[in-house]
């Protein structure tokens, strides 16, 4: 069984790699022996992550600054991967914006659907949807030419079900803000794109799947954590490392006959 999850001699590119889950995706791939390309808008803090990944088992790690909405950036990334590793076997499209209102004082009114700005909507769509399209097109084309590869598009449970706006209320019942319309819209689009690309590149030997994580504990206030946990069947929010197994499964030969699917890892949130 170990051979099914072995990623030695595989090259994996992770976008948005410096984020909370991006780092965890890299750790999962490193532990299976993959050579990893860490890419984000700013990889200035990457040396510590690079050292950690190599200690976990990655024989080589390359850190590259790249904007997933900029085709020239992605072409340069692709050329760098070709020059250093020869090709790409795994692409994790993790880069995304989870839209947040900067000012707590205006958060409620700015996040109302009726007031939500077109600028915010377009910005998040550009990263969350166009970024997945461009990275897949530019980096995935090499996989299709090689006749093999795995693309993992990170979506969300909010691409499957509607946000529960009651989560964003205080214990007294006061709504502090609303989850934005663009996040579920963009993640739903990622799921549709995943199915499209799986069908398009199936004959080329490239598998394309989505991973839909649930909410991750990351310093939220106790009331939110408790409210979220009560909505799940397992009674808790996810730990950041809870997604390592899913990433490794989708990246490796363990999922050799899996494509076009959405792997939901949410503690039972969407089953309730």
Overall pLDDT level:
96
Q: Report the principal-axis shape.
A: globular
Report the major sheet.
Answer: 7 strands, parallel
Could you state the oligomeric state of the chains shown?
Answer: single chain
Residue share in helices?
40-55%
Order of helices and strands: EHEHEHEHHEHEHHE
- Extract low-pLDDT stretches: none
Beta strand count: 7
What does the radius of gyration come to? 19 Å
Distance between the termini: 33 Å
Tell me the β content.
Answer: 5-15%
Secondary structure elements and their pairing?
Layout lengths: L10 E5 L4 H12 L3 E6 L5 H11 L4 E5 L5 H15 L4 E4 L13 H5 L6 H29 L2 E6 L27 H20 L4 E8 L8 H10 L12 H8 L10 E4 L7
Parallel strand pairs: 1-2, 1-4, 2-3, 4-5, 5-6, 6-7
Helix pairs in contact: 1-2, 1-8, 3-5, 5-6
Features:
272 residues; alpha/beta; Rossmann fold; NAD(P)-bd_dom_sf; 8 helices; oxidoreductase; 7-stranded parallel beta sheet; SDR family oxidoreductase; SDR_fam; globular
């Amino acid at each position: 069984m170990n051979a099914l999850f072995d990623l030695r001699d595989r090259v994996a590119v992770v976008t948005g790699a410096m984020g909370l889950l991006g780092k965890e995706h890299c750790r999962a791939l490193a532990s299976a022996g993959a050579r990893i390309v860490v890419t984000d808008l700013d990889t200035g803090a990457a040396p510590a992550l690079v050292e950690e990944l190599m200690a976990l088992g990655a024989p080589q790690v390359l850190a590259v600054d790249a904007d997933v909405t900029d085709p020239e950036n992605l072409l340069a990334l692709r050329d760098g991967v070709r020059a250093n590793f020869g090709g790409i076997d795994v692409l994790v499209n993790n880069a995304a914006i989870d839209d947040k209102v900067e000012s707590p004082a205006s958060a409620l009114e700015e996040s109302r659907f009726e007031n939500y700005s077109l600028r915010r909507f377009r910005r998040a769509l550009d990263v969350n949807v166009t970024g997945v399209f461009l990275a897949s097109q530019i980096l995935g084309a090499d996989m299709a030419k090689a006749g093999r590869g795995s693309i993992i598009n990170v979506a969300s449970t909010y691409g499957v079900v509607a946000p529960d706006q009651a989560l964003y209320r205080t214990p007294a019942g006061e709504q502090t803000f609303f989850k934005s319309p663009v996040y579920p819209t963009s993640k739903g689009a990622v799921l549709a794109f995943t199915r499209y690309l799986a069908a398009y590149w199936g004959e080329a030997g490239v598998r394309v799947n989505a991973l839909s994580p649930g909410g991750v504990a990351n310093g939220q206030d106790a009331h939110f954590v408790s409210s979220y946990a009560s909505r799940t069947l397992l009674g808790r929010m996810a730990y950041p490392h809870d997604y390592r197994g899913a990433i490794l499964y989708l990246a490796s030969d363990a999922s050799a006959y899996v494509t076009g699917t959405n792997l939901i890892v949410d503690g039972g949130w969407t089953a309730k």
